[in-house]
Amino acid sequence: LVQLEMAELTEEVVAQLHQEDSNIKREDEERAPPDAADAAEQKDAAAGDGNPPATAVERHISIQTKLEGLESLVDMNGAGRKSCPLCPEEKFKACYSHKLRRHLQNLHWKVYVEFEGHKMCICHLPCRNLKPSLGVDQAPGRHIAHYHCVVCSVTIARKTDMVSHLKRHVNKGETEASYSSSSSVVLNEPAPPGRTCEIMKELGTDVQLLPNHTTPQKSDTYFSRKMKSNRQLVFCSLAVLAEERNPLECLDAFGATGIMGLQWAKHLRNAVRVTITDISDTCVKMIKENCELNNIRVDGGQRGPRGPDRVSAEAETTPIATVEVAKMDANVIMHLRSFDYIHLDPFGTAVNYLDAAFRNIRNLGIISVTSTDTGSLYAKSPNVTLRHYGCHIVRTEYYKELAARMLVASVCRAAARCNKGIEVLLTVALEHFVLVVVRVLRGPSQADESAKKLRKLMHCQWCEARVFLKLGNMVDDTLPCDCHGSLPGKTAVQLGPLWSGPLFNTGFLRKMLSAAVRHSMDDIQPLVKTLICESEGTTLKSLVHGSSVLTSQAECGVVFKTLQSGHEARLADLTGKRKSGEESGNVLKKLKPDASLEHPPFYYSIHRHSIRGMNMPKLNKFLQYLMEAGFRVSRTHFDPTGVRTDATLQQFKSVLTKYSVPTFTKAATSTQTSVSSDKPA
């Protein structure tokens, strides 16, 4: 009983003392000034765990720029054993400085992942635990080696996965600067693209590029440096049209960064009225910024200050040209307005925009089409080719020219649906794109003449002989080879329908070469010279830049009346409507087709038809041998080893065999002498 009474008294005393302490503390807080309370709170916060606020962005210690930064995490000059800053104690025990330095170099620094100057070393700290697996007992304290992302601070185990993770950040436009630009403000969204833009200059035109400009699937403002030759060829074709008539209404239907339209406006000035459209808001904003970067006024843009300030501002920065920038679908704007020059360069195939392009194109206008779906054009995906272009093709030695003729056939069918014909001015097929430039000829008769040039192609899969089927001709006995008789099974296939007409216009190419020289485009001048020789069927030709070349009239069976004088220029109806009366006359005069003006269709690869065990002659010497045999010969831009000639495949092989030398000449002669000695006298 005495013990129970003592326990009850003790509990009462403790409760009374606790109540007195709480009353005293409440009285002290009421007497203390407000500043003292705030100071106490700040002192308690400072005396806490020492972590920064939640909004501060800290970089993990495994992310360094130099090896010295990783070694500076530990006092290497001090005495005694030291622990690794990136490994737990149970994985790497404390050791001396020389051994720790070797450990940091070989284990952590040697396998780093680099991103914008930052090295993400491998980390063994318990930042990322093993995932629990069913039925398996895991050792306590075991952790996975991992990397810390410099952008989003996520932990990733494998090096290859970290590289792929960083590529996704680049494609989205997210960089390390987007997250560490401000450590005291919570970033709800990445930094604006303008902070990480790259300035690129091409043909005197500056454009801003986003970090993910090379990935069309991730970026609206796609830009490819490999398409520089394409942009210069399109520019030269527009410059030639601007010499014939001006001002021209030009449309860059897929602006992206707007570099092509800006180059037109900056170099051709008042001769063109450029309209750049794109469906993306990001692209439209980027195009307007690039216009300001090149001192080009945006039509419908913001007005400057008024009064004397405006006069001084105009005197300092007078715009050199005016460009109209619109956010509109390409099909919509081509249905609403008429243009003299239209360039189509979508991502992939352009067949979805051909009908709208021929809808309102003016008479004698030019349409340039760039198609980058090389998988379907180069016979890698035949089902996609049949779906997009309505053609059946197989892989051949002349697959690039086959792709060009297939694209021209699609353009011709789209023009014929609008009662228009075409004349092919330029066709280029390189590794990354196929470019076709055509002139539009209005009228049903022109459409009929163009449609007659769409024919099927007979191709031998054994010897690769080929010939276009004539209108109303039977399939039997069409190919010049006899593979179908000497070999079992079917060797010939029908390809197409394809464009069977010429792919080049010599007069137009000469004018393009003059424009390239005038605007200092040294990169495409060799290509244009090759195209001129290919269109003429010659190997060496003196290229004259002068008025005599520019006034050439007979071009591929069609006579063009060039608008040179002011009186003739006034006769041209820029609205696309026909003029009546004898004064205007016929702008186009159809001539009798002359086969001598057209270049030979297709080409042969000298490597494909080389004879086994024979050393074939050099390509230039072989061209000379073919010319001496009486054939038209030229190099081709489609294939560096290709020869464009009007000789048949049998004639081509006979000349090649005649001038080829056996590989083992001495062995052959010794064999012949031994055989002759064995014969009886």
Description:
By secondary structure, this protein is an alpha+beta fold. It is built from 24 helices and 26 strands. Among the domains are: 63-131 and 144-174, no CATH class; 198-300 and 320-471 and 489-499, Vaccinia Virus protein VP39 (Rossmann fold, 3-Layer(aba) Sandwich), CATH 3.40.50.150; 506-536; 603-662, 2-Layer Sandwich (Phenylalanyl-tRNA Synthetase, Chain B, domain 1). Helix 7 (228-244) packs parallel to helix 8, helix 7 (228-244) packs across helix 18 (506-518) and helix 18 packs antiparallel against helix 19 (525-536). The strands form eight sheets. An eight-stranded mixed β-sheet has the order 10-11-9-8-12-13-15-14, with helices on both faces. A three-stranded antiparallel β-sheet has the order 1-3-2.
Shape: globular
Count the E strands: 26
Q: Return the structural class.
A: alpha+beta
Kindly report the CATH topology of the domain at 198-300 and 320-471 and 489-499.
Rossmann fold
Mean model confidence by pLDDT: 77
State the helix count.
24
Instruction: Output the CATH class name of the domain at 198-300 and 320-471 and 489-499.
Output: Alpha Beta
In CATH terms, what is the architecture of the domain at 198-300 and 320-471 and 489-499?
A: 3-Layer(aba) Sandwich
Low-confidence stretches: 31-57, 131-141, 177-195, 301-315, 541-596, 666-671, 673-679
User: What is the strand arrangement across the widest sheet?
Assistant: 10-11-9-8-12-13-15-14
Level of helix content? Answer: 25-40%
The separation of the N and C termini measures 149 Å
Proportion of residues in β-strands: 15-25%
Q: How big is the Rg?
A: 38 Å
Instruction: Let me know the CATH homologous superfamily of the domain at 198-300 and 320-471 and 489-499.
Output: Vaccinia Virus protein VP39
Main beta-sheet strand count, sense and barrel state: 8 strands, mixed
